[in-house]
Amino acid sequence: MFRLPLALTALCLVAAVWHPAGAMAHGVGSRELDPGAARAMVFLYADGDPMAFAQVQVTAPDGTVHQSARTDGKGGFAFLPSGRGVWRVAANDGQGHRAEREVTVGPASGPASPALAAPPAPGPVAVPAQAASTAGIGPNWRDVVLGLSLLANLALGAACLRRRGR
Question: May I ask which residue range the UniProt record assigns to the signal sequence (predicted)?
């Protein structure tokens, strides 16, 4: 009589204990706002919240630290590169979340000569501010599948309990 509920309870407890969600940190990402002379970007957590007041370090193409600063309250940060090459920008919130991006500065970077700018470096996608959901920030396909699976299993469990009650 109590076999099925006991088995379901045991299964739920095992799944809760062994589920890796407790160990997973939520992701972070960044996107470049308007590639011009000054490079502005915003750093966000995967749920869209800004990485407010996170420590940022800008490394020049030669490996020297060009700038150390913090993001603003909305996760925004800007710097003015002093030369060409691949610049590395890393934001760290001090709680284990770190977002890094590479910014490629061409020979005459800026809005006046977009044809001369080097192609974007691999990594987080540079997109307009309106398209945060397409910037790799937010739930990935595994989260969606897990959510749909949870809903399907709840519906199946309710149907089994309803059938058993007849």
Answer: 1-25
